[in-house]
Amino acid sequence: MFSARPRLAGTLLGMFVTVISTYAAFTNSFFKESELQLVDTRMQDFNILAPTSPIVHIDIDDGAVERVGRWPWHRDVTADVIRVLHELGAAYIMVDLLFSEPELPYVDPELLSDAGTDKVVGELSAQNLIEPDLEFARVIRDAGNVIMAVHLDMRAPGTPSPMSLRLRDLFDKQGELTLAKAMAAVDLDDTPENRADVKRIIIRLRIRRELLKQFTLDENELAGLLDVPKTDIAEVIAGVKRVVANELVDGQFAADSEVPLDEVKRRILGAYSERQTFDTEDVVAAYSRAVALKQLKRSALQMDGNRLPPFPGSTNIVPLYAALADAALDISTVNFQSDIDGVVRRVPLFVESSLGYMKHMGLVAAARILNLDLTKAEANGPTILTIPRIDGEPPLRMPLDDAGNLLIHWTKTAAGWERGEDFPHISAARIYAIADARRQIRRNELSRRYKIAKLVEIDRGEITIIEGEGPNAREIRKPGDEEYRKMVRRYVELTADLRRAEALRSNSTSDIQRWKSECEVLKDKIDNEEDVAFENLSMTLSEVAPEEIDADEKMAMARRILRDDLPALTSANKSLEESIESLKKELEPFIRGKYAFLGFAATAQGDIVATPIDPQTNGVMCHAQVLNSILQYSFIRIPPQWYGILVCLALGTLTGFVTATRAPSTSLIVAVLLLVSYLLINFFLLFQVSNILFPAMPCLIAILSTWAFVTLFRQLTAERDKRQFRKQLSQYTSPAIAAKIAESPDAARAFKVVQTRDMSFLFSDLKGFTSISEREDAAVVQHVLNVYLERMSEVIWAHRGMINKFMGDGIMAIFNPSVDPLSEHPRAACEAALGAMEELTRLKQERIANGDTPVFSQLEMRVGMATGHCMNGDLGSELKADYTVIGDRVNLAARLEPANRVFGTSILVSGPLYEAVKEGYEFRYLAELQVKGKGRTVPVYEILGRKGDVEAAALEYARRFEAGVELYKQRKWDECIVHFTRILARRPDDAGASRYIDACQEMKSFPPGDEWGGALELKEK
After folding, report:
1. For the segment 40-81, what is each residue's pLDDT rounded down to a tens digit?
2. How does pLDDT run across 169-193, given as a tens digit for each residue?
3. Residues in contact with 614: Cβ distance below 8 Å, sequence separation at least 6, in sequence order
4. 72 near 380, Cβ under 8 Å?
5. Measured between alpha carbons, how far is 351 from 985 in angstroms, rounded to an integer?
6. Helix (H) or strand (E) holding 801
7. Distance in angstroms (rounded) separating the CA atoms of residues 552 and 565
8. Are 522 and 487 in contact (CB under 8 A)?
9. At residue 926, what are phi and psi to the nearest 5 degrees?
10. For residue 537, what are the contacts with CB-CB under 8 A and spacing of at least 6?
C-alpha cells in the first residue's frame, strides 16, 4: 500500500502525461505516419468489401507497349482500342490518359510500302493521310460512352503565388511600379541579384501593358515606347507575347464565346492578321487553348459553394484538346491526394476551378450509372456530401475528410490484383490485337485495290487519239484506263471528306448525303469497270497458250494477279477475320456490360502511385475503387477528431490511476488488457463491421506512455541531477588531434605550414534553432546546445574529422587536414554526416524517454558537404591566428547547408564529392544549382543512405524526381509541371517538387534565353 500523497501525485502525473502524449500523438508527424500505417493494416487485413461491381481494367502495360510501340501511341491507335471496347459491349469507358495538345497528321508508312509508285488508288492522297485527333474524336463520339480525363494543378491553401504574379497584380493596381516598391512588396533582400531579377519582371510587366494595347508591337517599337534597351526587350518578348495572347483571346471569348478564329485574328492583329508571323502563331495557339477551355467548361458544374463542403481548388488547368472534349460523353479529373507519408489514400470528389466544379472520374461514372444529380449536391454537416438521385431513389451520402476528399475504400482482394484476385485486368495488347488484325485487313484490301487497278490498266491498254486536221493532225497515245483513274481519285477524295466532315460535324446533313450518293454512284461504276476487266482478262488467259502469255509481260502479270496474288490476299483476310472472331468470343464475356477503365500500367510510365494495398499501384485503380465503393454504397467514415481525443484522455487517465494506486503486476495486466481490448474493438467492431475509421495509435501511445511514466515515478523518490558537462569543448579540434600534435613533430610542423591540398568539408546547422532560443530560457538553450554539440563532436571525431569551429548551433568540420592526413576523406565525410543524423535521432529518443526538455524533440539538422582543393594551415596574424581552410569549395559547402531549405532535404553534397563516393552510397540528383554569388552552375545531390540500406521505394522515387529534373532542363514546362504534381501527390512535403513547379510556371510566363543551361537558381544564401 502507498500513502495518499504518492498515489495522488502519480495520478496527477498520469493525467499530465496523458494530455501530453495525446497532443503529441495527434500532432507529431511521426505518430501521424504510424497511425496511417495502422490505417493500411486495417484496409489490408480487416476489410470485407468485395469486388462485386462490373468493373474491368484495360492496362497499357509492358506487353502493350512492346506490341504497339512506346508511348505515346498515335491517337488513332488509342481510338482503335476504344472502338473495340465499345464493340465488345463496354457500358462505359473511362480513359485515364491526358491529351492536351493536338497531334499532327501523318501517312502510315506501311501503306506506302505496299503502294509502289502507282497513283491510281491515291496512296499519297487524303485517303491515306491519317488525322489522329479527328479519328479519335469520331470514335469517341460514335461510342457515346467515353469519359475523358483532365489533370488540374492544385495548390495547397495558404501557399503564396509566384513572385511574378504578385508583382503583376500590384502593377495592375498602381499602373506603374518602382524597383524599391517591388522589392518591398515581395520582401526580398536588397542585393544586386535580386534587384536584377525584379527589374526584369518590371520590364516584362511594362511590355505586357503595351502589348495589351497593341499586340503587334515589335522589339524596336517597344524599346522606343519604354525607353528600355532593345537587348532587354529581346530577352523576354517571346514569353510575354504568349501570355498576352492568352489574355487577349480570353477577353474575346468572354465577350463572345462563338467568335471565329479569323475574327479574333483581325481584332488582335489588325492589318497583320493574314500574315504568317510569330504573332499569328501565338494568337492561334491561344485561340486553341480558349476553345479547349470552353469545351471543358461544358463538363464543369456551376454550383453554389456555400452549399458544399470545402473542396480543393485549382490554380491552373491544362485542358483536354478541344476536338476530343467536344466528342466525349463527359470530362473528369484524375487527381490524387497523398498523405504525409506519400501514400495515396484519398481523392478529391470535386475540384473548384475558374470554370466551375470539376468532377472526379469515379464520381462521374457513378453519376451516370446511378442517375445521380450532381448539380444538386450539398453538404449535410461539415463532412457529409449528399447527392440526390434523378429517379427518386434515396440520395447518396458520402463521408469526406476536412479537405473535401473521399477516403478510398479498397476491396479486400485489392492487394492481390496482380494475381487476378480483384477486378479483371486485361492487357490493352489483347484489345489492340483485334484492331491490328483489322488494320492488316485494310492493308491487304488496299493491296488488292492496287492489283485490281493494274488489271484494269492491262485490260484497257492504250488508246490513240487524233488531234488536229490535215497536215497539223497528230496522234496522241493515252492510257485506256484514264476515266477509271479519275473515278477512283474522286471516290478517294469524297470518302476522305466524308470522314473529316463526320468527325468535325462541320458540314450540313444535305452536303453529307449528297457526297454519300455520289460515292455510291462512283462505286457502282468502278465495280463495273473492274468486273469487265476481270471477265476480259480471265477469258483471254483461258484462250491464249501459256507460252504466249509468258512472252507478254503484261499478260504474265495479269495471270499472276488473278491466279496468285488476289486469292492469297483473300485467304489472308479470311484468316484474319477468323482470328478477330475468336478474340471477340474470348474477350466479350469480360467486357460486355462492364465499366472499363483504360490507363497506364507500364513500368516506364509515371502514373504509378503508392497505396495502402501496394507501393506500386496503377493510378487508374484508385478511380476504379472509388466507383466500386460508390456503387456498393460502402464508404469509410471518419469521426470528428475530438471523439478520438476524448477516448485517448479517458484511457490514459484510467491507466494512470490504476498504475498509481495498484501493485505493479496489476497495473501491467490492466494496461495490457486495455491495449488488447481497444485494438479488438477498433479493428473488428468499428472498422470491419461498421466501416468506421477510429484513431488507434494515439490511444496506444496514451496507454503505454502513461503506464511507463507513472511506473518510473514510483521507482524514483526524486529526479536525478542533470548530467554535468564532462569537459569544455575546445576551439576547433578534438583531444585526439591535440594529442597527436603534441606527440608528433611532423604534425606540429604541418600545423604551421600553409599548403594547398584536397580536402572535404562539412557544414551543419540546426533548423529554426534561433527561434527556439528566443522563446526558451537561456539555461535550457545552453543545456540543449552543449549536449547536442558534444554528441555531434563525438561522431565527427570518430570519423577523423576536425571541428574547425562552432558557429552558434552550427558546426564546420574538415577532413584530411594537414595535421591528420586521410586518403578516403570524401567517404569519411559522408559517414560522419550519416552518423550525425543517426546520432541526433538517438539523442532525441533518449532525451524524450528520459523526460528531458522537449526542445530536444524539435532539433532537426541540415548538412552541406563539398570536396576539392583549398588552402589549409595556421592563417592569421601574430596577434591572432587560426588553423583553418580557405577556398571556393569551402564556401560551396557552406552554401549547400542552407540550400536544404529549398529542397526539404537533410544532406546535400556537391558534384565532385558525389563522383568520389557514388559507388558506396545512394543519391538523388536534385538540380544544376545556380548558387547565389556564383556564375557557374553546381550539380547538387541528396545523399539517401548507404548502398543496400535504402528502400526500393525511395530509390524509385529518386529516379522519378530525376526524370522531372530532366524535363525541366529540356524546357518541357507543362510535362514537368504534371510530372512534379504527380510526385507531390505521393509526397506533398517535397519542397523540391514544389520549387520546380513554381520555376516552371515562371519559365512558362517568362522563358529563359538560349544561354540558359537548365539551372535552378538559388537566391537565398
Report:
1. 898 888 988 899 889 999 999 888 888 888 888 999 899 999
2. 777 788 787 888 878 777 778 788 8
3. 414, 415, 417, 418
4. no
5. 15
6. strand 801-807
7. 18
8. yes
9. -105, -40
10. 455, 458, 459, 558, 562
